[in-house]
Amino acid sequence: RPRILSGAQPTGALHIGNWLGAIRNWAELQHSHETFLCVVDLHAITAAHDPIELLKNTRTTAALYLACGIDPEHSTVFIQSHISAHSELCWLLNCVTPLNWLERMIQFKEKSIKQGNNVSIGLLDYPVMMAADILLYNADFVPVGEDQKQHLELARDIAQQRINSRFGNPEKPIFKVPQALIMKEGARIMSLSDGRNKMSKSDPDINSRITLLDNPDLVTKKIKRAKTDSTIGLEFGNPSRPEADNLLTIYAILSGKGMEVASLECAEMGWGTFKRILTEAIVSALHPIQTKYKELMNDPKYLDDILRKGSLKACMVADETLGRVQDALGFLRKE
Ligand code: AQP
C-alpha cells in the first residue's frame, strides 16, 4: 500500500481549517494507505512558546486526531520529538540545503515579519525539519493544506537534487521523492475576520478562527461577528467577496451538501439567515468530535498507550532510513 505521512503543530487547539484542509483527508486515506501521523512538537518551538502550553497542546492535538476519526488500528500516531532521527536527519539535510532556498519561503517571510528581531534559526529551518519528517518515512504522499505546498516542493528538491543525485545511485535512490496531496475543497480556509488571510492558530485575534473545541455558544458568537459585506446572497469565486466564498465553502463541506447544492440554496439568502444555518452546520459537525475528545481526555492511559506503540513503530522505520543516509554520506557506523 502507498504510504502517507503528515502532522500538525501543537501550537494551540486545532481549528476547522486544519480539519477541513488536512485531518479529514488523513481520516479517509488511512483506509487505503499505510498512514504515519505525527504531532510536530519540534516545529512548535520555532516561535516563542510557553512550556506549559506546549505540554498541554501536544496531548490535546494527539487526542483531536483520534477524535476526528484517526483510527490507531489503521494509522501510526506518534510525537515527533520521541523519534530522535528527525533532529539527526534535519542536521544532515541542513548541511546540503542552500540558505537562499529557505530565505525565499513564503511562510518564513510572513512569520519573520511578525516576529521582528526575535526570528530564530529554527523558523528559517522549519522546512528542512519538515523534509526530514517526510523523507524518514519513505512517504509516497503528504496530505496537507495549500499553505504547505511550497514546503513540499522544497522537500522534493532536497531529496532529488541534494541527496539522491549527489550521493545515491539512480537504480536505488536514497530517498523516495514524495508528492503533495491537496484537497479540492477546503484546502485554504480563511480567517473569519478577514477573508484574505488564512485561518491560523497563531493569529492573536481568537475570533478569526473556530477551533474544534469551541462550544455552541462560542461558535454562535464568532459567526455573528464574522466579517461580511453589503451584498445579499452567497456565492463562490467572486474575488471581490472573499468572505462570502470562505463561509459558503465551510457551509458546503460541513453541512455535507457540497458546493453545487449549497450555492443554489444560499444564492439569494441574506447574511442573517445564512449565519444561522452556518452556525447550525458547524455546531452539529463539531459535536461528535467534542464528545469523543472528552472520552479520550478522561482516559489518559489509553492515549499514552497509543503514542507509545506509535513511537515504537515510527522509530523502526525512521532509524532504518537514517542509517541508509548516514552510510551514503560516509559516516562510520557504531559497532
Ligand atoms: N487555514 C487553513 N486551511 C486549510 N488547511 C490548513 N492548514 C493549516 N491552516 C489551514 C493545514 O493544517 C495542517 C496542520 O497545520 P500546522 O499545524 O502544521 O501549521 P500551519 O500550516 O502553520 O497552520 P496554522 O494553523 O496556521 O498554525 P500556526 O498558526 O501555528 O502556524 C497542515 O497540513 C496545513 O496545511
Automatic annotation (TrEMBL):
EC annotation from Swiss-Prot or TrEMBL: 6.1.1.2
GO terms for MF: ATP binding; tryptophan-tRNA ligase activity
Database matches in Pfam families: tRNA-synt_1b (PF00579)
Family note: Belongs to the class-I aminoacyl-tRNA synthetase family.
Keyword set, alphabetical order: Aminoacyl-tRNA synthetase, ATP-binding, Ligase, Nucleotide-binding, Plastid, Protein biosynthesis
One Gene Ontology term, aspect cellular component: mitochondrion
BP term (GO), one: tryptophanyl-tRNA aminoacylation
Catalytic activity: tRNA(Trp) + L-tryptophan + ATP = L-tryptophyl-tRNA(Trp) + AMP + diphosphate + H(+)
Protein name as annotated: tryptophan--tRNA ligase
Localization per record: Mitochondrion
Location (main, coarse): mitochondrion
